[in-house]
Automatic annotation (TrEMBL):
Residues 33-52 bind DNA. Residues 10-70 form the HTH tetR-type domain. The keyword Transmembrane helix does not apply. Keywords: DNA-binding, Transcription, Transcription regulation. It comes from Oleomonas cavernae. GO terms for molecular function: DNA-binding transcription factor activity; transcription cis-regulatory region binding. SUPFAM superfamilies: Homeodomain-like (SSF46689), Tetracyclin repressor-like, C-terminal domain (SSF48498). This is TetR/AcrR family transcriptional regulator. The keyword Coiled coil does not apply. It comes from the Bacteria.
Length: 200
């Protein structure tokens, strides 16, 4: 089989991930074979297995490539926590608008009963780090008494839950959000942070 050119490993890996993502979304996880990915890339099967020992590892790399669209998960320090949290949410929303993000999640949800390892990989490689990053940012705020709860991990989960319930899950289900995004974000921030004048 003729391989893609130029033959740099980075270019080959990118070609494999592009082909794999397209086939997974078109055919599902069970319906996509390593042979089909190699043919679509195109690379030799030997090259494919050199980079990815199996389909599970390949799918994990596809998850990584999709989550990489979020950019650095680090939350920059800022003087105004409200502005920092709003910026974090705006980055999340931009990530959700990437054309592969929602279809990949729908695929994982559909495959979960037969392949629960896909859900575990999605959570471990993307969702869990995002929650941990937010909790790490909130931890100093909790120490200063600026959070409505003293538990930064709980605050991170609750904050993201308020955002995703109103703005993310309607996208997944393909229905209108029904709520103004700015109001949702402001309301979530209000419920997580304690206003300076209300501190004891």
């Amino acid at each position: 089989m003729a391989e893609t050119t130029p033959s740099k490993p980075g270019r080959k890996t990118a070609a494999v991930l592009t082909a794999a993502k397209r086939l997974f979304l078109e055919r599902g996880y069970a319906g996509t074979s390593m042979d089909a990915v190699a043919a679509a890339a195109p690379v030799s099967k030997r090259t494919l297995y050199q980079y990815f020992p199996g389909k599970e590892e390949l799918f994990g790399a596809v998850i990584d490539s999709v989550w990489s669209g979020l950019g650095s998960t680090a939350i920059p320090a800022g003087e105004d926590p409200r502005a920092v949290l709003r910026g974090f949410v705006e980055r999340l929303i931009a990530h959700w608008e990437h054309p592969d993000v929602i279809p990949l999640l729908r695929l994982i949800m559909a495959e979960a009963p037969r392949a629960p390892e896909l859900s575990a990989a999605y959570y471990a490689r993307g969702k869990a780090p995002a929650v941990a990053t937010l909790a790490a940012y909130l931890r100093p705020l909790a120490a200063r008494g600026s959070l409505a709860t003293a538990d930064p991990e709980l605050a991170a989960v609750q904050f993201l839950g308020m955002i995703k319930e109103a703005l993310f899950w309607p996208r997944v289900l393909g229905v209108p959000a029904g709520l103004d995004a700015d109001k949702v974000i402001a309301g979530a921030i209000d419920r997580v942070l304690i206003a300076p004048e209300n501190k004891k």
